Amino acid sequence: MEISFIPAFKDNYIWLLTEGKRAVVVDPGDAGPVIARLEADGLKLEGILITHHHADHQGGIGELRARWPVDVHAPGNEAISGGTRPLYGGERIDMLDQQVEVIAVPGHTLGHLAYVAPGALLCGDTLFGAGCGRLFEGTPAQMSASLDRLAALPDETRVYCAHEYTEMNLRFALAVEPQNAALRARVDKVAALRAAGLPSVPSTLGEEKATNPFLRCAEPTVIKAALQQGATSQEKTDIFAAIRAWRNNF
Description:
Blueprint: E1 2-8, E2 12-19, E3 22-26, H1 31-41, E4 44-49, H2 55-58, H3 61-67, E5 72-75, E6 85-87, E7 92-95, E8 98-104, E9 113-117, E10 120-124, E11 127-128, E12 131-132, H4 140-151, E13 158-161, H5 166-176, H6 181-195, E14 203-204, H7 205-211, H8 220-228, H9 236-248
Parallel strand pairs: 3-4, 4-5, 5-6, 10-13
Antiparallel strand pairs: 1-2, 2-3, 7-8, 8-9, 9-10, 11-12, 13-14
Helix pairs in contact: 4-9, 5-6, 8-9
């Protein structure tokens, strides 16, 4: 199975999973670029995966299903227009001759799901390059626990998030850990990629664990920074909450 991106809106990535001429799309917020890509490459759509209910992740479902009446796997406890297969986390689904694991990751939204294919994490707006999603519906405890679930995957897992936010997130990460050598190296690498017009994703979970402050809330440097920002204790959830609040106003 190959994974490539279809750009949409200002900074969205719609992920395209292919096996030969068979295809699955993840979070098609806009049908137009998906249809153009499928037709250009002679692909047949076999399924749709949705991570959460925000319009930029599900807005193209109706138009796509009008052409290809495929199953739409989506959070069962969120309002997904056109969803046909409700999921809640813990399921395994067969797509493109691969088994995909479904993980519940509430935080950004309450029903947010992540999908794990062999070697790949499709995580929507939960985990970003050097960052994580805003807490529009969930609590810091929920998001912290969700990130822990994702961080438990193998370090070599490729992280396919849904937005090109890495450069912006790295600026904040440097404010949290200015002496982190791995982080400084990533800043240079991502700057070169973006200057060349290339995406900064996918990253790997190992890279995120070394450079993403939201996966480093047990690290002394992050704890110290969070306490300086008003964290009420050194408990992991409190550290995460302080870092997330700081990021919101950065």
